[in-house]
């Protein structure tokens, strides 16, 4: 007799919460004061157990839209044919490596595949240490690069947060280049270069330990730091400091890559630099677990030490079929240009709201990666953390899903699926206006 798959019970949210508390990781949080039970997704929307549609403005994982039919079909078709490891020859993996590397500057041409952004950043660390034969790392304050033990050590967002053990000795933390509330502000045309000078302090501290820097990690737009767009000239100057000390420069594009930046396919391009290593995750597989590292040939060659990098699942035919479908959708649906158009519209609308509400201290972003920082006072910049979370709950009540970020949890972070439309943007701006009116 054919095998039958047991049906999953349709439980109430309360029962699910009780079972989570009984059986799941106890550190796993839930969104909102009253968590939502979602049953399906389509495009820019999630649908709850009662069929209510929620506009998703925070899920940059489902990059080309929830359950995009082309991506789903690619995975289903390949899963029905073959899924195995990369020690067998298969067209999908080489086609994907070819297509992915073609989106980068020509200097970046060698692809390593992983299962997540965390794995990608972890592998980038191994590669950098092998190439430089050095150990110490420079990161940017409040950065988050992943959840593995080595990435927790590289993430001030974690090691300086609740439950963290503080900065490890081999990690140096560079000042966050925040030109809204940092030392150097938007009115300083050299703010980027000034912030980059702090890398020299970090390098000096590494040398004082008798060590050398292996790598400088930096997100191309800072996510957990508060959706901070790097000041002009920051990466060119920071990379120059790092490379002069022998370090390689790693661009973390896990949140902001694949056309989200609008004017650029990769957000590092906005700074007119070419990194030595780029890491990817989240949107690469539209929700399918996938990640990648792209680097220069000479760096990849130095990784040949006799110890093979083999990953059972990374680069399997199903993952690569899904990754290829994502690239096809981005291209054929012109989603990079769409991110530019809708992102510019959102930024204009948010700046208009800023003129009306003193609660909005700063609006910043690039493409469909935008931050709105709320403050109680525009002079003191006192964070409006309570108000930000009140806005989030107001929007949730009106079926718009958003979240907060930043060191003070006062930045509304906008990073919706790339199919987020002008009509969606207008709806959001209308509801945000109502939310701001209700809390001021």
UniProtKB/TrEMBL annotation:
Look up the record and name the cofactor or cofactors this protein needs.
pyridoxal 5'-phosphate
CDD domains xrefs: OAT_like
Q: Which GO terms describe its molecular function?
A: transaminase activity
Give the keywords, sorted. Aminotransferase, Pyridoxal phosphate, Transferase
Checking InterPro entries in the record gives: Aminotrans_3, Aminotrans_3_PPA_site, PyrdxlP-dep_Trfase, PyrdxlP-dep_Trfase_major, PyrdxlP-dep_Trfase_small
Per its UniProt record, what PANTHER family does this chain match? Answer: ALANINE--GLYOXYLATE AMINOTRANSFERASE 2-LIKE (PTHR45688:SF13), PTHR45688
The record's comment on protein family reads: Belongs to the class-III pyridoxal-phosphate-dependent aminotransferase family.
The entry's protein name is Aminotransferase class III-fold pyridoxal phosphate-dependent enzyme
This chain's source organism reads Undibacterium amnicola
Lineage, top ranks:
Bacteria, Pseudomonadati, Pseudomonadota, Betaproteobacteria, Burkholderiales
């Amino acid at each position: 007799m054919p095998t039958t798959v047991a049906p999953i019970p349709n439980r109430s949210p309360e029962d699910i919460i009780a079972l989570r508390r009984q059986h799941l990781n106890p550190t796993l949080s839930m969104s909102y004061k009253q968590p939502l039970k979602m049953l399906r997704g389509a495009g820019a929307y999630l649908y709850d157990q009662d069929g209510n549609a929620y506009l998703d403005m925070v899920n940059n994982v489902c990059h080309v839209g929830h359950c995009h039919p082309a991506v789903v079909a690619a995975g289903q078709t390949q899963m029905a044919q073959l899924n195995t490891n990369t020690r067998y020859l298969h067209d999908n993996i080489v086609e994907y490596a070819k297509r992915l590397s073609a989106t980068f500057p020509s200097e970046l041409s060698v692809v390593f595949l992983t299962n997540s952004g965390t794995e990608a950043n972890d592998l980038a660390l191994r590669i950098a240490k092998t190439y430089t034969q050095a150990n110490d790392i420079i990161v940017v304050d409040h950065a988050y690069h992943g959840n593995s033990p080595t990435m927790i050590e590289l993430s001030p967002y974690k090691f300086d947060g609740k439950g963290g053990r503080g900065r490890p000795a081999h990690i140096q933390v560079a000042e966050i280049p925040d030109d809204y509330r940092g030392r150097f502000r938007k009115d300083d045309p050299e703010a980027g270069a000034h912030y980059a000078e702090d890398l020299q302090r970090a390098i000096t501290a590494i040398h004082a330990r008798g060590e050398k820097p292996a790598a400088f990690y930096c997100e191309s737009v800072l996510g957990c730091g508060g959706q901070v767009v790097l000041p002009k000239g920051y990466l060119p100057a920071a990379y120059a400091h790092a490379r002069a000390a022998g370090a390689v420069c790693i661009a973390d594009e896990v949140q902001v890559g694949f056309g989200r930046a609008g004017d650029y396919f990769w957000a590092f391009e906005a700074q007119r630099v070419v990194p030595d290593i780029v890491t990817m995750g989240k949107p690469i597989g539209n929700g399918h677990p996938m990640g990648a590292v792209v680097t220069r040939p000479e760096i990849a060659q130095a990784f040949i030490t006799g110890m093979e990098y083999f990953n059972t699942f990374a680069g399997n035919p199903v993952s690569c079929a899904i990754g290829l479908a994502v690239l096809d959708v981005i291209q054929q649906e012109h989603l990079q240009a769409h991110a530019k158009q809708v992102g510019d519209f959102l930024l204009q609308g948010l700046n208009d709201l800023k003129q009306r509400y003193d609660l909005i201290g700063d609006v910043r972003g690039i493409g469909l990666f935008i931050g709105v920082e709320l403050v109680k006072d525009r002079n003191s910049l006192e964070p409006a953390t309570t108000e930000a979370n009140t806005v989030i709950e107001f929007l949730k009540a009106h079926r718009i899903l958003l979240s907060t970020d930043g060191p003070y949890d006062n930045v509304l972070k906008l990073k919706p699926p790339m199919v987020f439309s002008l009509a969606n943007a207008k709806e959001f701006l209308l509801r945000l206006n109502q939310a701001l009116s209700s809390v001021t």
